[in-house]
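quick one, 483 residues, struct below
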Amino acid sequence: MSSARPPESVFKRDHIASFRFVRSEFSAQTGLAKLVYAFDDGPELIETIRVPGAPFTLTAQRLGKVEAALRLLHLIAGVSYFKAAVPKSIRIDGYAIDADTARFLETVYEHGLAEFAYRNGLSLRGKIHFPFADDKTKGSSTGGSAGRREPLVGSQGSIAPSAAPTAGGPPKHALVAIGGGKDSLVSIEALRALGVTQTVTWIGAAPLLRACAERTGLPLLQIERQLAAQLFEFNRAGAWNGHIPVTAINSAILVFAALLVGADFVVFSNERSASYGSQIEGTGEVNHQWSKGWEFERLFAAEVRRTVSSELSYFSLLRPLSELAVARQFARLNRYDAHFSSCNRNFHLLGERPTSRWCGVCPKCHFVFLALAPFMPKPRLVAIFGRNLLDEVAQAAGFDALIEYRDHKPFECVGEGRESRAALATLSQSPVWQEDALVARFAREILPQLDPADLNIAPQLLAEGEHGIPADLWSRLDAHFSA
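---
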């Protein structure tokens, strides 16, 4: 017997039993996609995505791929709403998914919400179950836990990707995600140098993002995303709130857009450092950047090839590089100094934004300043930020967290502790930097406690590790980065 539902204006988090994926819709005439969700039998929560360029002329084959990409987007973007109540049951109305897709989604939700769960004192491990249709229940989308399978985490299971497809030359067309920071600009300029046709793509209406994108001088694609308005009401009414895997959602949006505009590659700019999280005593690793890490990239690329299009490649162009290696590449550019920003306060949906492009006090500002310092002339770096962050004693705790000294790595998109330690050790040997307050303090109080083998910056600058970059592109890209 179903219980009576509270009035629509009331959100009672702990009374909600299920989260529903109601339906997804797309109009090729307008370019508007609708992603519809609900809690229990409550009102519809409608998120919209609009891709410019409509009307789109789609063949039957291409339309099938677009519909598959829309379903994948529907399923991944649902994490924004699911987290509001974290109900025990998940329902999918109107279409069914198979066991591999269910397992993929459970991995994305569990690990993408790991920081959210930690901060809210929740335990999600093994508790998120997507219903799937197995051979006996084909067509059913409410299959419960029948056929339960082990999570994908850390495995090389059935949806682990094979090597990314290669071509005889550069890709015909790449959608390149721009985030306004140094990483995506390094990717854009590397692809430009290699002669790759690209469209600079972003989601939302942040003025800083548009200004940075326009600075590239390349074709632009601005995708509109509008969250369901009720989500903000739910937050005020006591919904669970916190960090979600935004890069997973943005990746699914760009895959959907790529199929509409006929792109061959979807390119992000996540470096290998993103695969390493914060080490929390008593909890273990919690990775703020999980959806920027290699595990997500590997699994998502495989899911796209398996269920959407075997001809569309998704990868990060910077995966073999550390944050410090990316910073060195960015320091070789000079056209973006007055346009880029990695300060996340610029991109908050709600709340204050810095009056300049850098607030100067958040972990992103701290890390980008520190990462660029070994490779960029000091006057240029100070001019970018408007201040010398390494000469401000009050900033000591923030930099201590970066090097994992008396604190864990911040829940932010910053490099590994060993990278920050190596950068500070390098600066401590530089006459230009060694007298600044925090560099001098590091050399005096912290450096003697560290293993000298952990402080050599040279190994951090080598391109290495797994990646999904097509082989013919990587061979030329590696030469470009090494030049």
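Residues 1-8, 135-167, 348-354 have pLDDT under 50 and may be disordered.
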